[in-house]
Amino acid sequence: MKLITVNFLACAVKGCKTAPASYPLHFQDAELELQELEFQPNFILNIIPRIDWDGLRVMANELGFPTIPDTKPEGDALKDEQILRDLHRVLLETQVVEGKLCCGNCGHEYTIKEGIANFLLPSHLGPTTPIKKSPGLLLTKPLALSLN
Amino acid sequence: MEYLIRFAQVHESFRQPEIQALADLAGVDLEFLYYDKNSPFCIIKVQDEATARAVIARSIIAKDIFELWGQGANFDDVHVDVRRRTEDRWARFKDDSFRFTIDSFAGKRNEKKKREIIQSFSFLGFKGPIRMKNPDQDFWVFEDYGWDLSSPDILRPRPEGQEPRTIYFGRWIANSSRDVINKYDLKKRRYISTTSMDAELTLITANMAHAGPGKIFYDPFVGTGSFLVAMSHFGSQTFGSDIDGRSFRGKEMEKGGTMGVLSNFQQYDNVGKFMDVFTSDLTNTPLRSYQFLDGIVCDPPYGVREGLRVLGRREGLKNEEVIIDGIPAHYRPGYIAPKKPYGFEAMLNDILSFASRTLVTGGRLAMWMPTSNDEEGVVFPVPMHPNLEVLNVSVQPFYSWSRRLITYRRLPEGQVSDVSQGRQVLDSEGVYADQLNAFRRKYFTKNQHDTVSKSRKESPAS
Question: CATH for A3-147, among 2.40.50.140, 1.10.357.20, 3.40.50.300, 2.20.25.10?
């Protein structure tokens, strides 16, 4: 799980998403791994406007990264290659391989194992309204026939 | 300037949409002057050679592009046309090395006749050396005999001695990316499954969705990651999720080896473009609702091989035990979240609504969906969303069903597409968005597709 991905994630529990405390998810018992990857300044430049800076700072702080500037780089700072390289390192090269992501609102914990997070919810936290059946639109029958 | 595109004679209804998507991506004005689904040859108008190169460079279904020097129904007409169009250019190529090649579609010529045809172009006055390998100028004669649609085997070339329907003469400009298909051949890929989509179609999908450097792409039904591989080929950062984590992990990972999807990125030496995969369900996605994705590409489960599932419990089933031995069940190792059947249309609506929330303005959704070929079977309308404009619908027909690739564009705030039209429209092969979307028809009257439909009716433009 890379920090860039976690920056785009909040708690999956219905009703939690609108609560401010459901973002960012908080790392617990995180085991980090660093993997050197090709530096893509264009990608970093494009993605900076879409990064939730406060969220990134909280996460980086929890993981012990000291190099995140207080404010999102703008203007001339974007021409500073070192700033972009630092961000590349934090966003793309840093992996959480084991640990948990916790919701600050409901306290639900999502586990990360071998770099892969699991966001599937038990049914009492999932959707409460059953999905309407739409007869004739379940494709199973006609297609199953034609495909044997 | 007019250019001749030579297409592969496959996936016909994807050919124009792919070229159009690439022209849009390159910011190029492109007009289709001649297109016929039964012919590999297509004439387009773009500004100059540089724009022609820009359009063709990423194409998967086109093979190459040529500067059109002339065309006609017989060689006399072609010679006249070549003289009329290009006489002022001949001097420029006078001393270059060159080569002539004849390519006949649905017909054939013997070697003697081929030599005669080449000789007939001697009026061009080229004095340079003939070079069969890497010539400075590469000239091509294309003969289109037209498929004999009455023949039981239309793919067999017509017998020798017949005359072509149309002849084109052109100067080679550039090759497409068609050879990339071979690089990503599923047969040579480390991690695949029975549902992995083939290299050609995933790469075409990537073109339709405008995958490219600096962009971020997501596949909510990632499976073995075929789409991620194709998106990353064009330079996008990619990530995906799946309700079934086993699909992207793979058996090797369970044995302590590399994760399946990652092993493909390693194979293609493109690990830097792989962000993440995680286990989740689109209806309960942990992804936040704001516009941060450049593109979404997916081939959702059809419910053919496996029923559609979403998180939740079937109605009428008892609630599960939530606490076991003092530990919430869902935190215990080996916990499997319950899933329940899910309607196909509900899933499509979820995808569209997710796309409208997360795509940046102008970002694209390229989604595959199945449909029945059979009139009496279930007909699926093209799913629509007010914030998404349907750009095109391409069809891959099978024996008794088809699958369609539908490409959408996220509209700017304040612009809304009319979703009332498309729902009743049935799609025949290669339906354009214009027929499905009154909004588009109204606001994009100058668009390329109108030109296409016009030039299709008329005889090939000269």
Answer: 2.20.25.10
